[in-house]
Recover the amino acids of this structure.
């Protein structure tokens, strides 16, 4: 899966057969806030979303950011993948 960091639109993007799949973000003090998942109309492939989120987690690890998952689907992803809880800032629990 090829992921583009579109800094102008502040989102990670990938192309799926149905269209553009993206995760919006914002930054504040070395923290990345994942705020929304945008899917093409009719897109229901949760496995592809999970793969996208795993790739985004690797980018966050590489850049040494702390993660603030705002969007409920991303919070659920972190609960199902506890290895990424180490990305949360101190005092933040899911």
């Amino acid at each position: 899966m090829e992921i583009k960091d579109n800094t102008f639109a502040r989102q990670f993007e990938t192309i799926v057969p149905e269209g553009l799949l993206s995760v919006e973000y914002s930054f504040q003090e070395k923290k990345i806030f994942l705020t929304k998942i945008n899917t093409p109309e009719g897109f229901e492939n949760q496995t592809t979303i999970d793969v996208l989120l795993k790739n985004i987690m690797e980018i966050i690890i590489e850049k040494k950011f702390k993660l603030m998952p705002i969007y409920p689907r991303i919070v659920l992803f972190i609960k199902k993948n506890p290895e990424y809880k180490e990305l949360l800032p101190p005092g933040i629990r899911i």
Q: What stands out?
A: The chain has a mean pLDDT of 94. The radius of gyration is 13 Å. Residues 2-85 form a domain with the Aminopeptidase fold (CATH 3.40.630.30).
